[in-house]
Amino acid sequence: MTPEQQERLRGGIAELRSGRFRQGLGKLHRIREDGTEEWCCLGVLSDYAARNGCPVGREILEDGPGNYERFGSQEDEYLSDEVQQWYGFSYSDPYLNTASDTNLRASFWNDRGAVGGGDFNAIADGFERTFLAEEG
């Protein structure tokens, strides 16, 4: 990860900690029928990237009751190629180091936290531990 990519990730982590995003599961960004919005941690990072120079398209798609947002042209619910490259991640669903020194996929950690009443702070810590920890 280049210094520029690390700085981008610091901005995305700040967004995760901002309190502006309600954690949800199953989609990067879900817009419920009543207008409430829910986000996956990867959706928050995608939103930050799109607003800060990443050349990724955004599209709102219908999904039964409510809608969801897709970033890029991929059909999956992980980071698009554009966002993945913008941050310098090797995977579209990166493994993150937990406080107990295990590894979890970001989407799994997000969905587990969304069901269990978690928030994005622990996931933000995981991104820092995994990608921004000072070496040696």
How would you explain this protein's 3D organization?
It is globular and about 45 Å long. The mean pLDDT is 91. It is built from five helices and six strands; from the N terminus they run αββαββαββαα. The strands form two sheets. The protein has a four-stranded antiparallel beta sheet, with helices on one face. Strands 5-6 form a two-stranded antiparallel ribbon. Helix 1 (3-17) packs across helix 2 and helix 1 runs antiparallel to helix 5. It has helices spanning 3-17, 41-51, 81-87, 106-116, 120-132; strands spanning 29-31, 37-39, 58-62, 67-71, 95-97, 103-105. The two termini are 17 Å apart. It has one domain (3-132). It is α+β, with helices and mostly antiparallel strands and 136 residues long.
The unreliable regions are none
Measured on Cα atoms, how large is the radius of gyration?
14 Å
- Largest sheet, described in full? 4 strands, antiparallel
Secondary-structure element pattern, one letter each: HEEHEEHEEHH
How much helical structure, as a percent, in the residues?
40-55%
Which class do the helix and strand fractions yield?
A: alpha+beta
The best one-word shape is: globular
| DSSP, total strands | 6
The N- to C-terminal Cα distance equals 17 Å
Strand percentage, roughly?
Answer: 15-25%
The tally of structural domains comes to: 1
Mean pLDDT: 91
What's the tally of helices? 5
Spatial arrangement of strands, main beta sheet: 2-1-4-3
Question: Could you outline the blueprint of secondary structure elements for this entry?
Answer:
Elements lengths: L2 H15 L11 E3 L5 E3 L1 H11 L6 E5 L4 E5 L9 H7 L7 E3 L5 E3 H11 L3 H13 L4
Antiparallel strand pairs: 1-2, 1-4, 3-4, 5-6
Helix pairs in contact: 1-2, 1-5
